[in-house]
TrEMBL record:
GO terms for cellular component: dendritic spine; postsynaptic density; postsynaptic membrane. It comes from Zosterops borbonicus. Residues 3-74 form the Talin N-terminal F0 domain. This is Talin N-terminal F0 domain-containing protein. GO terms for molecular function: ionotropic glutamate receptor binding; synaptic receptor adaptor activity. It comes from the Eukaryota.
């Protein structure tokens, strides 16, 4: 099966043929080998299916075969993106500016302080506002 793969970080698009019975992980490895430029931390990138036809956007599970993910042929060759893995928000009421303010270095450090000091109510409040707790702190790991 042929896919058109957009790679936003490299401003590239590739068309590659993948075996639909192969795992998404194998397709990801094939794509990494086909890139002309290297990606920093390329193994933390994933195949991403943008929202379409009433389906939510999501990263493909690397252990499942490609055929498990229905593709739309309405616009020709099915399209996927190769993106750095981040949380995909399904809530529509989240304000982008509010999320940006929460995910600053200061905001994330404050979150870590609340966790370390056992301030459950403050942690819960930040999470309710949309803070993504799945991040890597470069200073402490």
């Amino acid at each position: 099966m042929v896919f058109r793969i957009g790679i936003p970080d490299l401003h590239q698009t590739k068309c590659l043929r993948f075996d639909p019975a192969a795992a998404v992980w194998a397709a990801k490895q094939q794509l990494l080998c086909a890139l002309t430029e290297g990606l920093h931390d390329g193994l933390n990138y994933g195949l991403f299916q943008p929202a379409a036809a009433g389906r939510d956007a999501k990263f493909l599970d690397e252990e499942r075969p490609l055929r498990d993910y229905p593709q739309s042929f309405d616009q020709g060759v099915p399209y996927l993106e190769f993106r750095y893995k981040t949380r995909v928000y399904k809530q529509t009421n989240l304000d982008e500016k509010q999320l940006a303010k929460l995910h600053t270095k200061t905001g994330l450090r404050k979150f870590l302080d609340y966790v370390q000091h056992g301030s459950a109510e403050k942690v819960a409040r930040l999470l309710e506002r949309g803070l993504d707790p799945n991040y890597h702190d470069s200073d402490s790991g």
